[in-house]
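Summary for the lay section of the report: proteins are chains of building blocks that fold into shapes. Here we show the chain for Secreted protein and then a coded description of the shape we predicted for it.
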Amino acid sequence: MNYLIARLLRRRIPAVLVLVALLTVADTTVPSPAVAASDEPRTESVLMRRSGGLTGRVEYFTVDRATTNRYAAEVLTTTASRRFRVLRSAYLPADPCCDRFTYTVVVRYSDNTVKTVTTVENTVGTPQVLLDVIQSTLLAGGQGDEQAPWKTSVDQPRAYR
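The coded shape description reads as follows.
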């Protein structure tokens, strides 16, 4: 019996050692997601302009690093994601009529770039990531008045487009 156990261990130990060595090497060569994500700029602030509707009212919503609620964290994380950064500058309907809100989202990143995306409420083909950012910004952002400062994309540094 002892002979069988010794024989079994002699065959298994080298295989286990090789497996451990391979796993150790593989673990050190795979980049961690945190390292890959640190190369991307982080979101510093989000300013959203909502205009139109039945009354034509203009409202501003702001989320930045000082905004502390779970919706703000979602906005900052989502706008820093590649899914958001690759969006086109506008998702507009063929017919913008009638009484719908227009949303313009301006995101300022840590590398001083700015991304601006505009859409109209209920536009077919608007990416879900943009709809999520709009909804979370409405829930998280401090609301300003119609006199809030507004910069157009012409005034902004290197814009993602």
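Put simply, here is one thing we learned. The beta strands are 43-52, 57-64, 90-91, 101-109, 114-120, 142-144, 159-160.
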